[in-house]
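Figure 3 (text version): structure tokens given as input.
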């Protein structure tokens, strides 16, 4: 791995990037650079150089140095990924409400010497649910499988959008405890699914089922739990964006309306782009770049 000073020596003022460990697999440079290249010249003063989106491999004990270097080199902002989404908060001057409630930041912006922290994964999920799955959660119950970082984001967003009850199941029940750090209004709209038998009956009753586990990342993965049942009235969302998962295929076979996680990824990136540039993101260009990459073009 190159040292951080060397990694940051490639940048110019106004650039952006992603910090994480690992970070090589990130698809964000693909769609952000496509957006900057095709869009920047048309809308910005041509004297201002086109921003470039970089990947920075940043270990846990290098986080403070990375944020300092980003400020010193006058970066516009950064995306933050595993394992820094929570620890980066101590370097942030202001947090947006979602980031504060979740205790997780995936976007930084540097303005007038201040570091602002945002969580755009929340917007990514909301926009994808509305525009792609065309599901309005208001007044309806939903089931989330998985209580990791992504499950928590989705639970918060569904409650904010007025879901009547959010059922959450996790393989390891210990992980469900963290939801109870939230205030009583939020907690009163969360119900833990205690057993796999209960999971079967809840999955039959709710209109919306979301896979927020990492099951499906590997090609041979099956369902997060064999007790899940799909039917033709279900709306089904899988956060995995690498392939059509067994979860998605099973739901489709039952006649459900199904989407994967590519839209969520795209929309969270679009929101980061909007925070950094103050302009609407060129979604079609970003989507096309992402799809070409996924199809190996
Ligand atoms: P975490 O590590 O925080 O959580 C992983 C979750 O998966 C936990 O609930 C874990 O359960 C569960 N899990 C793992 N293996 C199994 C298994 N064999 N059976 C049942 N449950 C299992 O990860 P994140 O929440 O950050 O990410 C989850 C997924 O979401 C990732 O695959 C990531 O790629 C995807 N993602 C997609 C985004 C998008 O934009 N589409 C954005 C962010 C993430 P347990 O606690 O029992 O281990």
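Below: residues designed for each position.
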């Amino acid at each position: 791995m190159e040292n951080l000073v060397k990694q940051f020596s490639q940048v110019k003022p106004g650039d952006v990037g992603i910090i994480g460990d690992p970070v090589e697999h990130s698809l964000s440079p693909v769609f952000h650079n496509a957006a900057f290249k095709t869009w920047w010249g048309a809308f910005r003063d041509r004297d201002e150089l086109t921003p470039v989106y970089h990947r920075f491999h940043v270990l846990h004990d290098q986080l403070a140095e990375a944020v300092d270097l980003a400020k010193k080199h006058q970066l516009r902002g950064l995306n933050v990924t595993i394992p820094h989404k929570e620890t980066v908060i101590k370097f942030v001057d202001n947090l947006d409400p979602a980031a504060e409630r979740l205790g997780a930041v995936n976007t930084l912006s540097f303005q007038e010497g201040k570091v602002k922290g945002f969580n755009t994964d929340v917007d990514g999920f909301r926009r994808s649910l509305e525009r792609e799955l065309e599901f309005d959660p208001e007044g309806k119950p939903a089931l989330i499988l998985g209580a990791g970082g992504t499950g928590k984001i989705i639970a918060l967003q569904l409650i904010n959008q007025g879901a009547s009850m959010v059922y959450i199941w996790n393989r390891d029940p210990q992980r469900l405890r963290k939801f109870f750090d939230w205030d009583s209004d939020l907690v009163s709209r969360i119900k833990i699914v205690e057993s796999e038998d209960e999971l079967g009956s809840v999955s039959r009753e709710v209109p919306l089922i979301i896979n927020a586990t990492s099951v499906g990342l590997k090609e041979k993965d099956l369902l997060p739990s064999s007790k899940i049942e799909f039917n033709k009235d279900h709306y089904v969302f899988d956060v995995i964006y690498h392939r059509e998962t067994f979860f998605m295929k099973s739901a489709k076979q039952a006649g459900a309306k199904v989407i994967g996680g590519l839209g969520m990824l795209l929309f969270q990136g679009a929101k980061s782009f909007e925070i950094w540039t103050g302009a609407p993101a060129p979604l079609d260009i970003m989507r096309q770049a992402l799809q070409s990459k996924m199809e190996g073009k």
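The pocket of NDP is lined by residues 121, 124, 146-151, 170-172, 175, 212-215, 217, 224, 239-241, 261, 264-265, 268 (CB under 6 Å).
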